[in-house]
Write a structure and sequence with these properties.
With 74 residues, the protein is of the alpha+beta class. The chain contains 2 helices and 4 strands. Helix content is 28%, strand content 23%.
Length: 74
Protein backbone atom coordinates (compact mmCIF):
# COMPACT_ATOMS: atom_id res chain seq x y z
CA UNK A 1 0.00 0.00 0.00
CA UNK A 2 1.27 3.44 -0.94
CA UNK A 3 2.02 6.02 1.75
CA UNK A 4 0.28 9.39 1.26
CA UNK A 5 1.61 11.14 4.39
CA UNK A 6 3.14 13.84 2.18
CA UNK A 7 -0.32 15.00 1.00
CA UNK A 8 -1.82 17.48 3.44
CA UNK A 9 -5.52 18.39 3.22
CA UNK A 10 -7.24 21.40 4.76
CA UNK A 11 -10.70 22.97 4.95
CA UNK A 12 -10.38 26.70 4.23
CA UNK A 13 -12.31 29.85 3.38
CA UNK A 14 -10.30 30.45 0.18
CA UNK A 15 -13.53 30.94 -1.77
CA UNK A 16 -12.56 32.83 -4.90
CA UNK A 17 -9.92 33.07 -7.56
CA UNK A 18 -8.86 36.37 -6.01
CA UNK A 19 -8.31 34.63 -2.64
CA UNK A 20 -6.30 31.91 -4.36
CA UNK A 21 -4.18 34.48 -6.17
CA UNK A 22 -3.56 36.35 -2.91
CA UNK A 23 -2.00 33.22 -1.41
CA UNK A 24 -0.20 32.10 -4.56
CA UNK A 25 3.10 33.96 -3.97
CA UNK A 26 3.24 32.71 -0.38
CA UNK A 27 2.71 29.07 -1.36
CA UNK A 28 4.73 29.16 -4.60
CA UNK A 29 7.78 30.62 -2.87
CA UNK A 30 7.78 28.10 -0.01
CA UNK A 31 10.54 25.65 -0.92
CA UNK A 32 8.97 22.94 1.24
CA UNK A 33 5.82 22.86 -0.92
CA UNK A 34 6.16 20.63 -3.97
CA UNK A 35 2.67 21.31 -5.29
CA UNK A 36 -0.58 22.89 -4.11
CA UNK A 37 -4.11 23.64 -5.25
CA UNK A 38 -7.46 24.82 -3.92
CA UNK A 39 -10.75 23.25 -4.97
CA UNK A 40 -12.96 26.32 -5.34
CA UNK A 41 -15.94 24.11 -6.28
CA UNK A 42 -15.88 22.07 -3.07
CA UNK A 43 -18.00 23.26 -0.13
CA UNK A 44 -14.92 23.00 2.13
CA UNK A 45 -12.66 24.86 -0.33
CA UNK A 46 -10.08 22.13 0.13
CA UNK A 47 -6.44 23.18 0.06
CA UNK A 48 -4.22 20.27 -0.99
CA UNK A 49 -0.49 20.57 -0.37
CA UNK A 50 2.20 18.10 -1.34
CA UNK A 51 5.15 18.43 1.03
CA UNK A 52 7.63 15.92 2.38
CA UNK A 53 8.68 18.15 5.29
CA UNK A 54 5.82 20.45 6.38
CA UNK A 55 3.42 19.42 9.13
CA UNK A 56 -0.27 20.30 9.25
CA UNK A 57 0.16 22.84 12.04
CA UNK A 58 2.83 24.69 10.04
CA UNK A 59 0.56 25.11 7.03
CA UNK A 60 -2.36 26.15 9.24
CA UNK A 61 -0.23 28.86 10.86
CA UNK A 62 1.07 30.05 7.49
CA UNK A 63 -2.41 30.38 5.96
CA UNK A 64 -4.01 31.87 9.09
CA UNK A 65 -1.25 34.49 9.33
CA UNK A 66 -2.42 35.70 5.92
CA UNK A 67 -6.01 36.15 7.04
CA UNK A 68 -7.65 32.89 5.95
CA UNK A 69 -9.31 30.14 7.94
CA UNK A 70 -7.52 26.81 7.71
CA UNK A 71 -8.30 23.50 9.48
CA UNK A 72 -6.86 20.04 8.99
CA UNK A 73 -9.16 17.63 7.16
CA UNK A 74 -9.01 14.12 8.61
Amino acid sequence: MENFNHILLFRTDIKSEEDRQALQPLLDENKCIEQWNVDLDDEDYVLRIVSYSLKHHEVIELVRNHGYMCYELT
